[in-house]
Amino acid sequence: MARNWLILISLMVVGVGIAFLPLPIPAPRPVERTIHIEASQYAFNPGQVHVNPGDKVTLELVSTDVVHGLYLDAYNLSVQADPGQTARLEFTADRPGTFRMRCNVTCGAMHPFMIGKLVVGQNTSFYRAAGLILLVLLALFAVPRKSIFRRELAG
Ligand SMILES: [Cu+2]
User: Fold this and answer.
1) Cα of 75 to ligand 1 centre, how many Å?
2) In what order do the strands lie in the sheet with 77-81?
3) What pLDDT, in 10s, does the model give residues 9-19?
4) How many whole angstroms from 50 Cα to the centroid of ligand 1?
5) How sure is the predictor about 152, in pLDDT bands with cuts at 50, 70 and 90?
6) Number of helices (H), then strands (E), in the chain
7) pTM of the model
8) Which residue range is the domain that position 41 belongs to?
9) Maximum distance among all Cα pairs of the chain, rounded to whole angstroms
10) Most buried among 52, 124, 144, 147, using CB within 10 Å?
11) Domain tally, the chain
């Protein structure tokens, strides 16, 4: 019995590891990406942009109403788009992390809240989900359920 609990607890520890620790998966090859962002009072659409480290990124900022800007925190880059116009901002995503992109043209009362997000990093949720599913399957086979749960109920 004690052995089964030991297996179960070990599997839980491994599960927490899969869910939260950095994964040993190879970095994807950097690609060129063009991302279209619509700016309107008072939001960017999409509000969150995800790229891989090393990607050559072109942000196409289109304003649908008044003049808007986009300032990238940490990269210290900015661009401005006139109404109906497309402005381009090119950069290499060489700094991993989560950064804010904010409007840097006063565009109205709620302008300070016009903030989006740039995430530079690998998207690992697929690998984590696959790992956790495998772990659950492994647990179903490794631990004889009868023995643990019957005993629990019997007290
Ligand atoms: Cu603004």
Assistant:
1) 19
2) 48-51, 115-120, 97-102, 68-72, 77-81
3) 888 898 888 88
4) 22
5) low
6) 3, 9
7) 0.71
8) 32-122
9) 73
10) 52
11) 2
User: Ligand 1: distance of its center to the CA of 90 in Å?
Assistant: 20
Cα-to-centroid distance, 113 and ligand 1 (Å): 8
Claim to verify: residue 94 and residue 46 sit in the same structural domain = yes
Q: List, for residues 74-132, the tens digit of each pLDDT value.
A: 899 999 999 988 999 999 999 999 999 999 999 999 999 999 999 998 878 888 888 88
What is the 40 CA–ligand 1 centroid distance (Å)? 9
Whether the Cβ atoms of residue 69 and residue 85 lie closer than 8 Å to each other: no
Ligand 1 midpoint to CA 43 (Å): 9
- Do residues 113 and 39 both lie within one domain? yes
Do 118 and 130 lie in one domain? The reply is: no
